[in-house]
Amino acid sequence: MNAIPYGKHNITEDDIAAIIETLKSPNLTQGPKIKEFEDNFARYIGAKYAVAVANGTAALHLCALALGVQKGDKVITTPITFVASANCVRYCGGEVVFGEIDPETYLLDINSVRKLLEEAPKGTYKGIIPVDFAGRAVNLEEFRQLANEYNLWIIEDACHAPGGYFIDSAGNRQNCGNNQFADLAIFSFHPVKHIACGEGGMITTNDEAMYYRLMRLRTHGIVKVDELYKNSIELAGGLDAYPGWYMEMQMLGYNYRITDIQAALGNSQLKRIDENLTRRKEIAARYYEVFKDIAAIKGQSGIVEGHAYHLYVIEVDDRLGLYNYLQSLKILAQIHYIPAHIMPYYRDLGWKPGDRPLAEQYYKRCISLPVYPTLTADEQEFVINSILNFLNK
Predict the structure, then answer these.
(1) What is the band of 1 on the pLDDT scale with cuts at 50, 70, 90?
(2) Which of these, 64, 152, 274, 284, is most buried using a 10 Å CB contact count?
(3) Which of 270, 289, 320 is the last residue of a domain?
(4) Which helix (H) or strand (E) element contains residue 18?
């Protein structure tokens, strides 16, 4: 049997045709496919605006910039996430404060966030970055209520969760990234994600002013819209209108653009996202059914409404032994994640082992199993039987 990774992209003939069409077009970047992808993605998520960028990390950085994070600003996030969720605050000179996780959901525990806020003078914190870890949607309605008490903004890191959702207090489905409760949300199009563009990211928002600010920040701080220009027509070199070549750099921005090639692939992949989600849920249901009564499985992702299942996590005591055993069988399970606060960079800033014991306990036992749409039933059964064989040794 070939190696079975924890995640895997799937490129179809339609995807290839979409890329070839773009390669033959006049625009490889800054062309029409990007706006098409943005509009299609915003429509799918249920947000008013979407801004496509180079990757998920760029999306996070631009969100922090757009919200005005600056030196000394304190922002709360989870330690169980890819470090980019925290690093975006540091890029702007802000301070990261890690909350604790809920050991049942693996998500940022709102009670730990409330405790941090209550123990500090009002105004100490500027924002919260909850993460839809593994594809499980954070209840952002609850976080919004808490954020409103302390005048905080929210960035939803939904990199794992396009197609994920939670049910609000009124019984309505709230899609991850629709920004009904968050100020901004971000997604990633890394190859192991639900939509694979090679690299790429997306920011969604319902705020028009924020949308235009993000558009400027994405491209060197440059504006090319007559209504937004600050210099006079005369200074721009025109007579009764701005000349066609004119543009303005209005702020310090970045080159965080995505290409038309990536956007074309994203458009094609987006068409299959619902069927891919269905398959991910089928795989998750099979894992859950097999493992739910096994005493050696200390926890697992489980079956949760609205879970997008970017990852399926189980917890075992001998995680290293299981990891090595699976690797020997070419089952390339992975660990998500080493708690951010015990990374040497954050330890140098004062964090230490023991600061977030629930996150650290989770890390000692977690292992992510293969879950991707092209995983076959035979491959999944091989993974399952290999785990059972190891646990029954």
Answers:
(1) confident
(2) 64
(3) 270
(4) helix 13-23
- Structural domain boundaries enclosing 301: 273-391
Question: 182 is written with which tokens?
Answer: 């968050």
Contact (CB, 8 A) for 141 and 135 = no
Contact 277, 307 (CB under 8 A): no
Please give the biggest Cα pair distance in the chain: 83
- Predicted confidence at residue 225, as pLDDT, reads 92
Question: Are residue 285 and residue 265 in the same domain, yes or no?
Answer: no
CA atoms of 320 and 352, how far apart (whole Å)? 22
Place 393 in a pLDDT band, splitting at 50, 70 and 90.
Answer: confident
Q: 258 and 53 in contact (C-beta within 8 Å)?
A: yes
Q: Is-contact 365 316, C-beta < 8 A?
A: yes
Helices (H) and strands (E) in the chain, counts: 14, 16
Same domain as 377, residue 288: yes
Q: Round to whole Å and give the CA distance between 70 and 299.
A: 39
Cα separation values, 167 from 45, 140, 164, 174, 190, Å: 15, 10, 11, 6, 27
| pLDDT, position 342 | 98
Q: Domain with 265 in it: what CATH number?
A: 3.40.640.10
Integer Rg of the chain from CA: 22
Q: CA-CA distance, 178 to 156, in Å (whole number)?
A: 10
**Do residues 374 and 368 make contact, with C-beta atoms less than 8 angstroms apart?**
no
Q: How many CB atoms lie within 10 A of CB 7?
A: 19
Whether the predicted pLDDT of 383 surpasses 80: yes
Both 110 and 242 in a single domain? yes
Check if the beta carbon of residue 233 is closer than 8 Å to that of residue 242.
Answer: yes
Average pLDDT, the chain: 98
How many domains is the chain partitioned into structurally? 2
Query: pLDDT for 170-228, tens place per residue?
Result: 999 999 999 999 999 999 999 999 999 999 999 999 999 999 999 999 999 999 999 99
pLDDT higher than 80, residue 282: yes
Q: What is the mean pLDDT of residues 331-342?
A: 98
pTM for the structure as a whole? 0.97
Mean local confidence (pLDDT), 365-374: 98
Clarify whether residues 293 and 200 are in a common domain.
no
